[in-house]
Amino acid sequence: MLLTLCACVLLAACTGSDTPSAPPANLRAEVLATLPHDTSAFTEGLEFDGTTLYEGTGLEGQSQIRITDVSTGAVTKKADLPDPMFGEGITIVGDKLWQLTYKDGVAIQRDKNTLAELKRATYTGEGWGLCHDGKRLVMSNGTDELTFRDPDTFAQVGSVQVRSGGKSVVDVNELECTPQGVYANIWKTDRIVRIDPQSGEVTATVTLTGLLTEQERANTDVLNGIAAVPGTDQFLVTGKNWPKSFRVRFVTAQ
Length: 254
Description:
The protein has about 250 residues and is mainly beta. It has two helices and 22 strands. A hairpin with a 4-residue loop joins β21 (about 235-240) and β22 (about 245-250).
């Protein structure tokens, strides 16, 4: 009897069947400031490095990596991707920057100050979002999978599937790594989710509806772009061809 009980306890511990995941926290965006954004930017990646804001843009023949003045939206430095590459997510690693491409299977490593290309790495599948958690790169490909990669070689070193309530979460797009987890835009929605990178479980869902007025949403595309503001609990969020970006704090939804 005792052996059977011990075996059952061990099995439960191994499978985690006795510790179901808590439902995701329900959050909203509290807008702290509204800032200008270049409407020509088809935003695919957004990241702060100190006070410097980097933005990667997409579309064939229009893709760039930019350094942007966050207060004015003006582009202070830029580099074009070779046509017909379609730019995607970006992240900073030390004095370098990685930039994904959509269906080209190429990641470009750049000097973060000059934006000059240093080298390229290849990967299979599509490239969507990218962030750096301090030890490894985290990459999305539009499915429910996050892949972990070596920050120097770009070689895959692991992966996890994104889940919420036992169901797959797909269309995981632009990423931002933080100590609280990986924040991710969900494509074609006004939602951002926070993901535990160890388990893949969604720990929070952030609703960002209503940032733009109906008139401002004309001729724009989806919400995409999230950058943690260093030294704060705040984020900068924007969208593809949006006229504005927003400095926000994620708070409990009422």
